[in-house]
Design brief:
7-stranded antiparallel sheet; Elongation Factor Tu (Ef-tu), domain 3; Membrane-bound Lytic Murein Transglycosylase D, Chain A; 17% helix; 13 strands; 2 domains
């Protein structure tokens, strides 16, 4: 993802109750000061094969992990904002109120959908559909009564796209082509294998599990990406 920040536009995090990001859940979270930096992480996984009587491995591509984005948010009570950070909301809210707002929108389970909200981060050219992966909170200033007056939020968001959009981006539909699929809630390896290859065959998903070096293919993790080789190479 190329990031071109906007000098006028403020970074915004919007929560939704659906993966297509069409049903907004509450008011968007807007920062007062844009982040000085945003970090994106991209990682490929490779299956390591070693031939007989060989001391070297072949780094065969297996799958790509979902993209991640991280940055820092600053929560403050006063009007003083530190350069290079971003204030979560206006200063008429306490740090605790600001944190509650962020946690409700991004972290806590939404009772309507029985999982945390689907999120979208927007800033300049950034339009990142995601979910919150990790949140580290560091309180750095307190009032005389012990109430927090300042806190830094280190946040990491993981990419989250609808299945149809993933398929469109990857432009892959033939069983004779390589496929990389991101696991969604409710997915199983047999069902994904049947969807890719168009046939129900236990030997196929066992072969896919072997290619991806899966120790337990019965328990897929949401967000996991699985490599499906061409049918002729199964």
């Amino acid at each position: 993802m190329s990031i071109v920040p906007s000098k006028e536009q403020k970074l915004k995090v919007t929560a939704y109750t659906d993966v297509d990001r069409s049903k907004i859940a509450g008011s968007p979270i807007k920062v007062l000061m844009n982040p000085q930096s945003i970090t994106t992480r991209h990682e490929n996984k490779y299956a390591k094969y070693r031939g007989i009587n060989s001391s070297k491995n072949s780094a065969s591509y297996a799958y790509s992990l979902a993209e991640e984005m991280s940055f820092t948010l600053l929560l403050v009570n006063s009007n003083a904002l530190d350069y290079g950070m971003s204030a979560l909301t206006s200063s008429n809210k306490t740090v605790s109120e600001q944190l509650d707002e962020f946690m409700k929108a991004c972290y806590q389970m939404n009772g309507e959908i029985h999982e945390p909200n689907f999120l979208k981060i927007e800033w300049g050219s950034v339009n990142f559909s995601c979910k919150l992966k990790t949140l580290d909170i560091k309180y750095t200033s307190f009032g005389k009564d012990g109430t927090p007056r300042r806190a830094e939020l280190e946040v990491v968001f993981v990419e989250d796209l609808p299945k149809d959009k993933i398929a469109k981006l990857e432009r892959k539909s033939s069983p004779d082509l390589t496929h990389v699929i991101t696991v969604m809630e409710g997915d199983t390896l047999p069902l994904l294998t049947e969807k890719v290859y168009g046939v129900s065959d236990a030997s196929l998903y066992i072969a896919v599990a072997r290619v991806n070096q899966m120790n337990d293919f019965r328990n897929l993790k949401q967000g996991q990406r699985i490599f499906f080789p061409p049918l002729e190479n199964k």
